[in-house]
Design brief:
Layout lengths: L1 H18 L5 E4 L25 E3 L4 E7 L3 E8 L2 H10 L1 E6 L8 E4 L38 H13 L4 E5 L7 E4 L9 E7 L2 E9 L17 E8 L38 H5 L8 E7 L3
Parallel strand pairs: 1-12
Antiparallel strand pairs: 2-3, 3-4, 4-10, 5-6, 5-11, 6-7, 7-8, 9-10, 11-12
């Protein structure tokens, strides 16, 4: 009886180590060895992460992370066509909790999203419009499915046209501030998106220390664990309207300063937007990244 009880306890310990707190997936973000191992290049390719990517099956993504004396590095990769289109057209927010928990302390949305005012994706690579049934998109007026090469080229062109800017959130209730990806506003920060074969790759480099006068706040890493939240932007028609956040001097499409929500609907939304709402790809998960000391 004692042996069985001990075996159950051992199994419980293994489960806790794998899933982390509150069911979060644990990512081994072992730091780069001092003086050895080059830091990953933030270029939208996962070639620097070979052997480190961990698959998160529940989310349809692979993730890896590491750190050095100055930065935290994160990569996300997915072969899921619907998720690729959702990231590009709706936008991806990465939440960082330096205390190692699941609190939305600091958020970066990149890309900021290419959806129209209704939240209807302008064009989803690899899927019918607004999450339709087909795996392949169709060229307007032709009805013929795009081949894989054309799909990748189209995504690459859309990525190349993305503006060098991101939305910065200081907490869950912040409506966001548009920040340029430059050394003056966000020194040390690097964000990149790219296609690597049929895989979409997102990379982030975030400085461990803040620069006085810069818009980028301190990460506040207080231990060896970083909480990382990955969240697709909700379709605009579903998002609650919120007022401007702290310092929200840049007006959006809404009425309040810093409000990036669309105007109130004045007519019926596009049919496909409502019809396929339940089929829209979803990503809302937290990771427990073990970065070491």
């Amino acid at each position: 009886m004692f042996g069985l009880r001990g075996a159950r306890a051992a199994m419980l310990i293994v489960v806790v180590l794998v899933t982390g707190c509150a069911g979060r997936t644990v990512i081994d973000g072992a730091p780069l060895a001092a003086g050895g191992g080059a830091a990953p290049s933030i270029d939208g390719a996962a070639s620097d992460w070979q052997g480190r990517l961990q698959h998160v099956e529940s989310a349809g993504i692979s993730v890896a992370a590491t750190r050095d004396a100055d930065y935290v590095y994160l990569v996300l990769a997915t072969n899921d066509r619907g998720l690729q289109g959702a990231i590009l057209h709706r936008g991806l927010t990465v939440w960082l909790d330096g205390a190692g928990g699941s609190e939305r302390r600091l958020g970066l949305r990149y890309p900021t999203g290419l959806a129209d005012a209704w939240g209807e994706p302008v064009r989803w690579p690899g899927r019918g419009k607004a999450g339709g049934d087909g795996e392949a998109t169709t060229r307007p007026g032709s009805g013929a499915p795009d081949d894989e090469v054309a799909r990748r080229e189209r995504i690459a062109a859309e990525i190349a046209a993305l503006p060098a800017e991101f939305l910065l959130f200081r907490g869950d209730e912040d409506s966001g501030r548009l920040v340029g990806l430059d050394e003056r506003a966000a020194p040390g920060l690097a964000l990149a998106l790219g296609m690597e074969g049929s895989r979409l790759v997102y990379e982030l480099r975030f400085p461990l220390r803040s620069t006085p006068g810069a818009m980028l706040p301190a990460l506040g890493l207080s231990g060896g664990t970083l909480g990382v939240g990955l969240q697709l932007t909700e379709p605009a028609g579903d998002r609650p309207r919120r007022g401007g956040g702290p310092g929200g001097a840049m007006g959006g499409m809404g009425d309040a300063p810093g409000d990036f929500s669309p105007p109130e609907r004045t007519g019926p939304p596009p049919d496909s937007h409502e019809r396929y709402r339940g089929d829209l790809p979803k990503l809302d998960t937290w990771l427990e990244v073990k970065l070491g000391g």
